[in-house]
Write a structure and sequence with these properties.
This protein is of the alpha+beta class. It folds into 3 domains: about 5-130, no CATH class; about 135-250 and about 485-515, Uridine Diphospho-n-acetylenolpyruvylglucosamine Reductase, domain 3 (2-Layer Sandwich), CATH 3.30.465.10; about 250-485, Vanillyl-alcohol Oxidase, Chain A, domain 3. About 30% of the residues lie in helices and about 20% in strands. Strands 3, 14, 15, 16, 17, 18, 19, 20 and 21 form a 9-stranded mixed sheet that branches. A 5-stranded antiparallel sheet has the order 7-8-12-10-11. Helix 8 crosses helix 18 and helix 14 runs antiparallel to helix 16. The two termini are about 40 Å apart. It binds flavin-adenine dinucleotide. Flavin-adenine dinucleotide binds next to strand 5, helix 4, helix 6 and strand 12.
Length: about 525
């Protein structure tokens, strides 16, 4: 799959604007199209900023495609006055030094962050598109192999390179997700983190350019190093990060079961019972992880990953899930066995390639528990998150229910709530804005908000604690700093680093700006 196919192309941006009423750009200025109906595409020219945005933004925030009170929508594009494409630390430092000390700077790596804060930026800003920093270098160290990843590298590139070196890392599922953008916002790997920790927990070195243009190499001894692994885009520009690689043999294999459902009640029942299996059989056993996904396309996907410490028979382990589906008379749509880290790491690439829109609109929200979830929490997740998520209204949406904990809980503390959670649910609301009317888009966002508001009312359920799985551009309903950064102490540490490293708040386009600015 060509990753550029995943993006909002110039053609789809124009077509999408025509069909959906999502704002369209005329020339290089931001203009608003108030068309809310399908019709002939308007005559329009895209300026360089708009071309760039169409290429680099994987999606736009669902909040940004909502109509205003007068029924019009605001254009979604970058507002920055300049976009630079540096190719080295020296060039980044030179750009930073050449700008007035108050000029805001935004960094873009893979372009997948759901609020799009850095992609959109503002009219005073200079964007650093770091996509040209593609180096991936391996080196031997006393405790194994290290890999240094440039800040333009995306997961497809890293996974292929790591495979060639017989290694494994807790990578994210999206082939085009930026490795640095993921690590700086608390990224988690549903398949691998229970054995390998969070990717940020495997970081051992980092090269950054500071707000005054100084290039520094950070190690875990530096407080800034830790702060970067959760709030990085608010503090400095990352040139590269070095990670401690694991051996490919840490993953023994995986079993993926895909069942179909017709009625939402079946999805609720399957998820409730399979979560009980997760609680009883998977969570007490660090040699296994389980992810249950409920999709708007009416599939139930249960992926069990077995690590090197697993001693049983994999098919036997997942038998209760097979029996559960059979007892509910759910059809088996597919069954796959993966025998390597690479197969699991690359498994979702073709699925993600199908997620396209004109433009694609999204929001990310998560909830979870720090300890084994109570039955009341599991019932709630089944009845409300699975039962009421806008899966019919926004058909590309998914609910993902995952085990965390394991190696994450034992690894170094970094500023993300992911470190503390054992059980994780996320609601990815995803739809083609071009195919939805203004009223439908409003309804999808309202249904999402309703589910998340209900989550907030449940005792023991943390909400929006994951930097990569929360929607910071929600108006008046976003996460709090102590949750998203893992603790009040971490949030204070980040605020102190912000004051020290970026007193003029140049790096203000990070998703958590309101917490640290
Ligand atoms: C299809 C898909 C699959 C995903 N899968 C997962 C998953 O499995 N697990 C998970 O946890 N998350 C996942 N995510 C969420 C994803 O990890 C986050 O959105 C991540 O922040 C995206 O990083 P990016 O580099 O692609 O985006 P960008 O928008 O380029 O960057 C994200 C943020 O990091 C900052 N940043 C990027 N590079 C630098 C730099 N060099 N220096 C300073 N700041 C920088 C940006 O300013 C921005 O604030 C997924 C998202 C999508 C769309």
């Amino acid at each position: 799959m060509n990753d550029s196919e995943n993006r909002i192309s110039r053609r789809t941006a124009i077509k999408g604007a025509a069909v959906s009423g999502v704002g369209l750009i005329v020339g290089s200025a931001m203009a608003e199209q108030s068309s809310t109906q399908a019709g002939a595409p308007p005559e329009a020219m895209m300026g360089p900023n708009d071309e760039w945005f169409a290429q680099r933004a994987w999606s736009v925030s669902a909040n940004k495609v909502l109509p205003k009170a007068d029924g019009t929508t605001t254009a979604v594009t970058t507002l920055a006055r300049r976009i630079e494409h540096p190719t080295s630390a020296e060039e980044i430092a030179a750009i930073v030094k050449s700008l007035p000390a108050t000029t805001p700077i935004a960094c873009v790596c893979g372009g997948h962050e759901s609020s799009g804060a850095a992609l959109v930026a503002n009219r005073d800003a200079v964007i650093l598109d770091l996509g040209a920093l593609k180096s991936i270098e391996f080196e031997s160290a006393d405790d194994g192999t290290l890999v240094t990843v440039g800040s333009g590298v995306v997961f497809r590139e890293l996974v292929e390179a790591v495979k060639a070196h017989g290694g494994a890392l807790p990578v994210g599922t999206g082939p085009g997700v930026g490795v640095v953008g993921y690590a700086l916002n608390g990224g988690l790997s549903s398949y691998f983190s229970r054995r390998l920790g969070l990717l940020g927990q495997r970081a051992v070195r980092m090269t950054v350019v500071t707000a005054n243009g100084e290039t520094r190499v950070l190690t875990p001894k530096d407080e800034l190093f830790t702060a970067m692994l959760g709030a990085g885009s608010a503090l400095a520009i990352v040139v590269d990060i070095t990670f401690r690689m694991a051996n490919a043999s840490v993953v023994k294999g995986a079993e993926q079961l895909v069942f179909g459902f017709e009625k939402r009640a079946q999805a609720v029942e399957f998820s409730r019972k399979s979560m009980q299996f997760m609680k009883d059989r998977v969570m007490p056993n660090d040699s296994v992880s389980l992810e249950i996904v409920v999709t708007g396309t009416k599939a139930l996907v249960a992926t069990t990953v077995f690590y090197d410490t697993f001693t049983g028979i994999t098919a036997e382990f997942v038998k209760p899930l097979v029996e559960l589906a059979a007892s509910m008379k759910l059809p088996t749509l597919a069954r796959a066995e993966w025998t390597s880290w690479y197969q699991a790491a690359a498994a979702l690439w073709p699925v993600i390639a199908e997620q396209k829109g004109q433009p694609l609109a999204t929001s990310y929200h998560c909830a979870g528990t720090t300890a084994t979830p109570t039955d009341a929490v599991l019932d709630f997740v089944g009845d409300v998150v699975v039962g009421e998520a806008p899966l019919d209204e926004a058909e590309m949406s998914i609910v993902e229910i995952r085990t965390l904990g394991g190696a994450i809980a034992q690894g170094p503390r970094i500023p993300t709530g992911n470190c503390d959670h054992a059980f994780f649910v996320d609601l990815v609301t995803l739809f083609d804005a071009g195919a939805k009317s203004a009223a439908q888009r409003r309804e999808i966002v309202a249904l999402t908000n309703r589910v998340i508001d209900k989550c907030r009312a449940v005792p023991d359920l943390g909400v929006d604690f994951s930097g990569t799985h929360s929607q910071p551009d929600d108006v008046d309903r976003s996460a709090v700093a102590a949750e998203i950064f893992g603790s009040a102490e971490m949030a204070r540490m980040i605020a102190a680093q912000k004051k020290k490293m970026d007193p003029d708040n140049r790096f203000r386009f990070n998703p958590f700006a309101k917490f640290v600015g």
